[in-house]
Design brief:
The protein has 576 residues and is of the alpha/beta class. It contains 22 helices and 18 strands. Among the domains are: 92 residues, Helix Hairpins (Orthogonal Bundle); 190 residues, HUPs (Rossmann fold, 3-Layer(aba) Sandwich), CATH 3.40.50; 77 residues, no CATH class. The longest helix has 25 residues.
Amino acid sequence: MTDTYASGIVMERPEDNLYEILGLSSTASYFDIFNVFERLKEEDALTADAQYACKALLDTDYRILYNKTQSTKALFDAGFFNDGLDKLVYQYESSKSDFVTTPTHKLQANLEAYQKSGKVARNFAVLVTTGGMAPIHNGHVAMMEQAKRQLEEQGMFVLAGYFAPGHDSYVGQKYGGTAAIPAAHRCAMVELACQDSDWLDCDPWAARYMPGEVNFTSVVGRLGDYLGHQLNMVAPTVFYVYGSDNAGFSAALPNNSVCVERTAISSKLAREGNHDHLDPKVRDYLLSWDQQDTGDLPYLIRNEENEAIKQWDHIVPIEVLEKRRIQLQSTIRLGIAQVFKSLGHKNKVHLMSISDQVTKAKEAVGGRKSISLDPFFSADQRIDSTRYFAVSQAQHSCMYRAQRPGFKTLREQANAIPAGDYVLVEDDTVTGGTIMSALSLLPSNVNIVDQVILSDFGDYAGVEYYDVVDLRDFIVGSAHGGLSVVLGNGLKARVPYAAPYVSLRARAKIPAEAELEISRIIWQANVRFFQGTKLKICDACPSLHSLSEMIGFDPEDTMEAFCQWHVDRLLEPHLV
């Protein structure tokens, strides 16, 4: 039997009984079905009908529906989508709730605000909707807002709502391929549409971390498990939100779905040039996503040399660490350069030595007393501050500024500085936020007579550049390395500049479509850096420990294993 979806995609479905196709009884368990799948695949006997049967019956919600109706037509009407079973194993392997792909900071903030309000505990809900979102439009947002109102009228408290764009393997086929905007860009537009919302966000799991399109029931089930694990709480009830044109979807989730009247607004209109119903930020992105020009300015990597890794020299000889650090920096530098080249960009990637900057900056300071804001510039006094971002989020802006993990509060650090005249030293003034924060904290008897900026010295002093990043931010567990983030459980950590934790598009100006490729390069380079060293997580910078513990690692596990775990999850979608 052939079915045609509203999007124009044609799918085949069997008419025979699904259990009989697999040689099973209707009382077969999940494991019975999965074992048949394994056997048929091993025997190279996995027919199209058997693929369909396994895919449908291994989905708990669709299996319940099929047991009630004994009809594959009922599955089709309820939105069932068979994407090919070879991908199923990877779906279940990589859907674990410990892979931190979905932001939870808005949900957490709303939960904390509700708890502090003193209100009587209510049933908590989270909304999620799926679709191509090529691009997301105001109708999508209005649909979620209306669903939120419906549930609140029923006495529930909605903590958050997620847009979960579909995978390229599905969206690329919709409407004859006209919807084929890559997932990285569709997710970027969703993030922009949610930027000013205090409860809506993007769930990129299905679009960016899966090997192919998954059913909306998998998105709902996984999100519930994920939130329960990440927030260390009883998971809120996840409700699926869908338009009235897909009313049949309720059969798959009869108790956990919300139907909203569909409007005439569509993504198709936007792709055809009608942008009246787009957020201005989304409109601007849509008009330029495939025409991005990064110019020919140099891309700079500030090389701290051995300063960020010498913490390990009591375990691994420094000459060994240095050799591996050189290999790592070359791999990452060449990886970024190759990505720019493959996308037609002209940016060259250069290493910028910190030692040259420090030497010349010290000459500029001379015999005067100094206060350093840079972790690798030694001074008479220092203030260790950092910006904190939400983990696995768009990270266009920080949540707040505070002390680096393990240090006293910024106010305590500033008040401990003796009275006198000082030179203030910082690495760069891209935003100027660190300097302004320090100046606002200093006591009135601490006088700043001069400022010395490290980027004013060295080979690239005064050179206009595309972006500058620090090498230590790519080395997992290095001293002061990585982005300071707030995890879903409220703990703070420093995480390497790589997916799924950091938006390389926002924090390192890596093109959106290259974020996952560069992230794989970074994690693989770290595997090689730690390979055979027997360095453990407990040997890494303490600010990594809260993350490693949250995703299930023991302090005695090796850094190599920690990095390899991430490589495996980022590579799985590409093994199919």
